[in-house]
Amino acid sequence: MDARQNDKEVSLYLGNLDPKVDETLLYELFVQFAPVKSIRLPKDKVLRRHQGYGFVEFYNVKDCEYVLNICTGLSLYEKQLRIKKLLGGQGDVGPVDEDIGPVVYVGNLDKLTDAESIGATFSNFGTFRKPPQVVSGETSSHAFIFYSDFESSDEAIKEMNGKIIMNRPIKLDYAYKKDSKEKHGNRTERLLYEKARENNFELEQKR
């Protein structure tokens, strides 16, 4: 079996991380339950801050499952940790349930592509409002990337469509909206999303 597949079997996805969480804190937490092989927090290339999610890798499946069971529901800095197996957690993504906002579809990915590698590659173009999702098929995989702004998603599509990743030419476009033949990224959606972002910023300023 390919080593990358093994890595996925012994890795956990960590979501809803507070900005104050770092690799050292996560290591000190999880090493209490099992030996930790590695910790990774993908960071924004400009701000050098993690994006609210990360990955912890253990040495065997038994330890990985034990930590998953014992740490489910755990909170860090008053935020409940979202934790799940990296392998198998990707097949239940289903349709993209996003009404508004930049969602990029990435097709023709190698079957061994995971959310971590997608995040590392596409975070070069901007920040994510939620972690990338990877859906595995019989012969290939595809992914959805949720950028925080349309400038980033436009740039990613422009620069990466047709590029080679793991010996396969990938295909990028805006994803279709759920239960619709309409794609994300049209002018109306861009205006609505920008207005929503402005309103959210104003609410944050008043708090």
TrEMBL record:
Gene Ontology CC annotations of this record: nucleolus; precatalytic spliceosome
Protein's GO biological process: positive regulation of mRNA splicing, via spliceosome
Domain spans labelled RRM: 10-88, 102-177
InterPro entries from the UniProt entry: Nucleotide-bd_a/b_plait_sf, RBD_domain_sf, RRM_dom, SF3B4_spliceosome_assoc
SMART domains named in the record: RRM
Record keywords: RNA-binding
Molecular function, one GO term: RNA binding
Superkingdom of the organism of origin: Eukaryota
Pfam families in UniProt: RRM_1
Protein's name according to its UniProt entry: RRM domain-containing protein
UniProt source species: Ogataea philodendri
Lineage: Eukaryota, Fungi, Dikarya, Ascomycota, Saccharomycotina
